[in-house]
Amino acid sequence: MSQPLLQHYRLGSLDLANRVVMAPMTRNRGDxxxxxxxxxxxxxxxxxxxxxxxxxxxxxxxxxGAGYIHxxxxxxxxxxxxxxxxxxxxxxRGGKIFAQLWHxxxxxxxxxxxxxxxxxxxxxxxxxxxxxxxxxxxxxTPRALSLSEIAGIVGDFRRAAANALAAGFDGVELHxxxxxxxxxxxxxxxNTRMDAYGGSVENRARFLFDVIDAVTRELPSDRIGVRxxxxxxxLSGILFDEETLPLFDxxxxxxxxxxxxxxxxxxxxxxxxxLPPELVTPSVxxxxxxxxxxxLIGAVDYTQDSANAxxxxxxxxxxxxxxxxxxxxxxxxxxxxxxPLAIPDRATFYTGGVSGYTDYPTFAxxxxxxxxxxPDGFESYAETRRRFNAVVNR
Length: 394
Description:
single chain, alpha/beta, 8-stranded parallel beta barrel, two-stranded antiparallel ribbon, globular
């Protein structure tokens, strides 16, 4: 019997060759005046097209949504043309690919936004770092969005979904995790509004459902996924409090009725001592498995063994791998044949160019250089984030 990871899967109206998902990962290779995906970006994704599903790096739905330089966006004609090269290359190798739609909200800086302040649900500094043309800089206090501006951003997501369809993507994922705009609306620590988008759990979830409703005007619901990270605490202004779990229970309960492609659930990327045991024991995915009836993708720090076990137990249906795909373009084949995994070079995660991007060989082509800083294998996701600031400024 084959490994659970290697079994076919029906995702809405799509047939996936296996249950291995390539997770969305910012790689900062859109370093051109248009911030468009390039032939190099297309080569990178095509190399990894044996994944059952690829979820693209987060792609900005508008210039206002940007928080890091050199990220290929999806709000202009040139950007749509760039992504069309990517999807064509992936499809030519039999792959499936969703676009992750992204607005960072407060986690930005005027140096990225033409001197304008970032926007957010409320004027609260997330005390994070934005990757600007002048290197990493501390975030500033953003400007609170008006109701009409919120409606405008909902429209930006709808247009981005239409652009993704025009670019040939098989679907879209809404990035509602990791302290970005959707998450800022969810969290009381970042949302002190007293109108229809603040206060109650229902109101703080409203922006997500407004966007889903708008995106379904462009795509069938079974081509739309949502990524969440309920366990965030102490990152980008997000604090886990007594209303966090009720809010995500509410969100997931409502998502059940929408016939989405999937719910993409992240395991903790921070310490868990402030989190309720029922959320993280044995896993965040297990907690939501009993609450979500559709396809569930698990992510963060899975190994081949733990992923197979999670699928076999029914805790998840698919498993997303991030850093493992950076150094192993043939990750699925390595899983199939029991080959060891190459370790990615952290120093090239965000630095642009071919090095550490498209030059990792397959197992058949020979070993890749190991990152000797990690002799025991992959560091945790949280450790990778901690190193992010230093790496890009080398």
